[in-house]
Amino acid sequence: MKNTSTTIYIFLLLFAIQTSAQTKIIDAETKYPVSYATISFGDGQGLFADDDGLFIFTKKLYKDVDSLFISSLGFKDLALATINLPETIEMQADINKLDEVIVTAKIDRKFKEETIKPYLDDDYYKCWLPTIESEIAVFFPNGNDKLKKITTVLFPFALESRDWKKRKRANADKRKFSTLFKVKFYKNNNGLPGDVMTYTNIVFRATEKNGDEFELDVSEHDLFIPEDGFFVSLQVLGYTDPNGKLLPNKKYKEIKGRSGIVKIPTNFRPLLPFTNEINTHNTYIKRVFISGNKWVQFKKGNGIESSLLKTDLNNYGVGINYNEYRDE
Fold first, then answer.
1. How far apart are CA 184 and CA 142, in angstroms?
2. pTM above 0.90, yes or no
3. Cα 105 from Cα 224, distance rounded (Å)
4. Do 131 and 268 form a contact (C-beta atoms < 8 A)?
5. What is the pLDDT of residues 96-129, one digit of tens each?
6. How many whole angstroms separate alpha carbon 126 and alpha carbon 123?
């Protein structure tokens, strides 16, 4: 009985600590939550707020961090100290950026549905391992001067089975996971991802039940392909509970080495299969450890250490569906 009481007390204490460490990010004007804001700190570390704008930060988890840098699409960046971190953080809307968004009228014209198919693969050794501190983008050129609206994006995934030797078993036999991703669309800025095409948060949850391809419907966002092409990017937010709620997680695994604690980025499932069947280098990455967290084309000679490049696997083979409208 005594042991049971002690266990309950410890659980309640931990719950109280966790609850008190929870911080909420809101829009200063509307008081609505700022969903999936990025909270950066230290040397490339960070985490994300959930859909309710909530995140957990404690000195016990991050002892040496004294300041946070918070950013979110459509809001002004915010820096604040971790000492006496408030329970509620207000962010100011960035009017200058929001004014750049072009409001498009509904187009009532005939169109032809076109598809750029994704490249699928289930080989573990041909996959990019997604981490929270990385973002990966794929470039799509505009082939002609026709008006085109993106309707869906097809993200290829590679699933792991419980048995390493039987990875090609049915999806039902794969190890379970539930992962939340954030998707962004960028304009082409001299060959690199530039301004975003929409300030709306676009997220989706992937599980093993989705199989080797996730089809994301983006038709409601009125994304028209610019004349010089666009980029679509993918960033992992973390694992979720069965209801899709983002779970707190640490960005790094801490492993004791001879020279002290070594921080290894945590990899998330599902994995992202790469292909050598695309002649051009259409994939770009942004990582804290490469070029100061600036966009870099994924190719040899750009300072990227990757086993994928050594075997000429240069591209993440995302696909899209789009409507190509007839001339008026």
1. 18
2. no
3. 12
4. yes
5. 765 555 555 577 789 999 999 999 998 888 999 9
6. 5
